Amino acid sequence: MTQHNYAYTLYLDDLPSAVVMRDKLDKDLPPNYFEGIPVGTYNALDHLIVIYNHLDITVLINYTIEGHQRIVGFEVEPSSIAEGTKRANNDPHDNDGPLYLKVD
To answer: What are phi and psi of 31, to 5 degrees?
Structure first.
C-alpha cells in the first residue's frame, strides 16, 4: 500500500483534514501541506516500509462576534512510533525510532 502512495482523509465538521509534513532535521522550515493522510512511506533502495501509527491532530477554531467558537479546519501530522521503552510516552519526537513493517 505504501508503494502505491495510498492515503485516506479524516473529516471533522464536514471539513477535510490537511496533512502537515515537517522537515525532521530543520524544524524552523515552514511545513508542507497535502491532501490525504499517507499510510506510511516506502524506501525503494532499502525496501523498507514505515507505517504511520500515530497522528497529531490540531483543531483550528475561530471566535465569532457573538462569542461562539467555529471550527475552520484541522491539521494532521502523521508519524511512526516503534514499539519499545519510550512508546508509552506517545511522543513522536522522543521515541525508539519508526515502526518498520516486516515480512511475515
So the answer is: -75, 160
Query: Nearest Cα to 85, choosing from 96, 70, 100, 97?
Result: 96
Q: Which residues of 3-35 are buried (b: 16+ CB within 10 A; e: fewer)?
A: eeeeeeeeeeeeeebbbeeeeeeeeeeeeeeee
**87 phi and psi angles, rounded to 5 deg:** -60, -35
Distance CA 67, CA 72 (A): 15
Q: What separation in angstroms does the CA of 12 have from each of 33, 44, 71, 81? A: 17, 34, 8, 24
pTM of the predicted model over 0.85:
no
Q: What is the pLDDT along the chain (104 residues), one digit of tens a residue?
A: 556 678 888 999 888 888 887 776 777 778 788 888 888 888 777 778 888 888 889 999 999 999 899 998 888 888 887 776 665 666 656 666 777 777 65
